[in-house]
Write a structure and sequence with these properties.
It contains 8 helices and no strands. With 165 residues, it is mainly alpha-helical. The two termini are 15 Å apart. The C terminus is likely disordered.
C-alpha cells in the first residue's frame, strides 16, 4: 500500500473505505447498551450474570465481527484489503475511546488500548506483505499519537520472538 503505487483517486477511495469502516466500528461500539441485553435487574440476578463480564463480552463480540472480515481477507491473500480493514478498526476503537459519550464506558472490564494492540497483533499474524508493515507503522504514528507506543511495543515483542510477515 505504500511507495506511491496508488493514484490520488485510488488513495481517496481507500481513505473513504477506511473511514466508513471506522465509522461503522465507532457506531457499533457507541450504540452498545448492556442494560438492554437483559430485560431487567431481576433477570440479571436470576441468571447470575455479572454485568461487567456481559459488557466485556458484548464489546468483544462487536470487535470480533470486524476481525472476522480481516481474517477472511487474509485467508484469501488480500493483504491490502486486510490492512485497510485493520486501519478502520483501529480508527474506530480510538474514536470510541476519545469521542463516545456512551455510558457503556462505565462498565469497562475491557481496555481500548489493549484491544487496539490486539487488533494490530491479529493483523500482523496474517500479513504476508512486508510493505504493509511500514504502511501500518506510519498510519499508527500519524493517526494515534496517544497510542503510538503500542505499535512500538508490538514491534519489540515481534522482534524478540522472531515474528515476521
Amino acid at each position: 500500500m505504500s511507495e506511491n503505487i496508488f493514484s490520488s483517486y485510488e488513495k481517496s477511495v481507500i481513505r473513504q473505505v477506511l473511514d466508513e469502516i471506522a465509522e461503522s466500528v465507532f457506531n457499533d461500539l457507541d450504540n452498545l447498551d448492556v442494560e438492554s441485553e437483559l430485560e431487567d435487574e431481576e433477570e440479571i440476578q436470576q441468571k447470575d450474570v455479572d454485568q461487567d463480564e456481559l459488557a466485556s463480552k458484548i464489546y468483544d463480540d462487536v470487535l470480533e465481527s470486524y476481525l472476522d472480515v480481516l481474517r477472511e481477507y487474509q485467508n484469501h491473500s488480500r493483504d491490502d484489503s486486510a490492512t485497510i480493514q485493520c486501519m478502520g478498526i483501529l480508527k474506530g476503537i480510538y474514536r470510541f475511546e476519545n469521542e463516545s459519550m456512551n455510558n457503556f464506558l462505565e462498565w469497562g472490564l475491557y481496555d481500548n488500548h489493549e484491544n487496539f494492540k490486539q487488533v494490530i497483533e491479529e493483523w500482523r499474524k496474517g500479513n504476508t506483505d512486508p510493505r504493509n508493515l511500514k504502511e501500518m507503522d506510519e498510519f499508527v504514528m500519524e493517526n494515534f499519537p496517544d497510542w503510538r507506543e503500542d505499535i512500538l511495543s508490538i514491534e519489540r515483542y515481534s522482534d524478540e520472538n522472531h515474528v515476521s510477515a
